[in-house]
Design goal:
The structure is a single chain. With 166 residues, this protein is of the alpha+beta class. The chain has 5 helices and 5 strands. It folds into 2 domains: 3-65, Thrombin, subunit H; 69-163, CarD-like, C-terminal domain (Methane Monooxygenase Hydroxylase, Chain G, domain 1). 46% of the residues lie in helices and 21% in strands.
């Protein structure tokens, strides 16, 4: 595989949906069925884990670069906007939000955080949904923090000030 087909560079920050923000630490060739396959080696600080992803599968897995400042700001703005009520059936709501998390755009993640935060103010979230909310919130904080070059606690304050705005 030639260099032009590689989307990411070493030391680039990327988002791996449902895993977190990571750094490409290397691009290595591994032999598989007598063929050399290039892999991204991605270090995920949030879980202190290094994963290997075949370069040709990265796009299909939703791995993408950190969003530009403008899109990080749009995600913050979205959190403070009015929204459509979400289904009261938690299983349906969980599946909808899980699908959004797998798509992995910053706007999808902001939508999950906004809807589940407001739902939790009405009624305590079931455990699975609470974990989904926590994951989405962490992912959103991490990506916005890297995109806007702000400390995570500052990003957390900005998110909650918008969520709690009247």
């Amino acid at each position: 595989m030639d260099e032009e087909t590689r989307t990411f560079q070493i030391d680039q920050k990327v988002v791996y949906p449902s895993q977190g923000v990571g750094t490409i630490t290397a691009i290595v060739d591994k032999e598989f069925k007598n063929e050399n396959i290039p892999y991204y080696q991605i270090y995920l600080a949030v879980s202190d884990m290094t994963i290997m992803v075949p370069v040709h599968k990265a796009d299909g897995l939703g791995i993408r670069p950190i969003v530009a400042e403008e899109n990080a700001q749009k995600a913050l703005d979205l959190i403070g906007e009015a929204y459509e009520p979400i289904p009261s059936d938690w299983k349906l709501r969980y599946q909808m939000n899980l699908d959004l998390l797998k798509k992995g755009s910053i706007m999808d993640i902001a939508t999950i955080v906004r809807s589940l935060y407001h739902r939790s103010k009405v009624k305590e979230l079931p455990i699975l949904e609470r974990k989904l909310y926590d994951s989405a919130l962490k992912l959103l904080e991490d990506e916005i923090s890297f995109s806007l070059n702000l400390p995570k606690d500052e990003v957390e304050k900005r998110i909650f000030s918008r969520l709690e705005a009247p």
